[in-house]
Write a structure and sequence with these properties.
By secondary structure, the chain is mainly alpha-helical. 79% of the residues lie in helices and 0% in strands.
Length: 173
């Protein structure tokens, strides 16, 4: 992406049709890849959700097993904390959530006190259900983000072509 941005900026500064044309071509290729990835992701959302759950489970295992001196364990702990804070959940399933809360108290969201939650008769929300919910019920948010990115890229392509044509039609000074 930095290379593509460099082509656009340097092509505009140098008023180079070649660089701006290359920038436009790269944007078209990236746009086509993003559309193809979006369509593939929508069609295979169950597979994507399964892969995300598998990634979460691997990160949770590394975070629970690893020591803090290991950089992989630290990275896994950061990933798991991000999942927990974003999705407001703890553990892969309810039993695992209780175990994770007891073993590593800093992995689960702070506002959730395990003893109070259990005393009220509620089990902590498991992340597998939250991930499934994200991909089934909140898919429209992902779609909105993709549409915003697509509109921005279309404007970039239009403006680069306008600039390229303007350079071609301008008189040399």
């Amino acid at each position: 992406m930095m290379f593509v941005g460099f082509l656009g900026c340097y092509g505009a500064i140098q008023e180079s049709q070649c660089l701006l044309g290359t920038f436009f071509t790269c944007l078209v290729i990236l746009f086509a890849c993003e559309v193809a990835a979006g369509i593939w992701g929508f069609v295979n959302k169950d597979l994507v959700a399964k892969d995300v759950k598998q990634f979460y489970d691997q990160a949770l295992q590394q975070a629970l097993q690893g020591d803090l001196t290991n950089s992989d364990a630290t990275n896994a702990k950061t990933v798991v904390k991000t999942f927990h804070e974003t999705l407001d959940c703890c553990g892969g399933n309810s039993i695992m959530a209780i175990g994770a809360s007891l073993i590593q108290t800093d992995l689960c969201p702070k506002e959730k006190n395990l003893l109070e939650t259990l005393a009220q008769g509620h089990l902590p929300q498991d992340c597998h259900k939250k991930i499934d919910e994200l991909f089934s019920e909140k898919l429209y948010l992902i779609g909105i983000a993709a549409i915003v990115v697509a509109v921005i890229m279309i404007f970039e392509m239009i403006l680069s072509m306008i600039l390229c044509c303007g350079i071609r039609n301008s008189t040399v000074y």
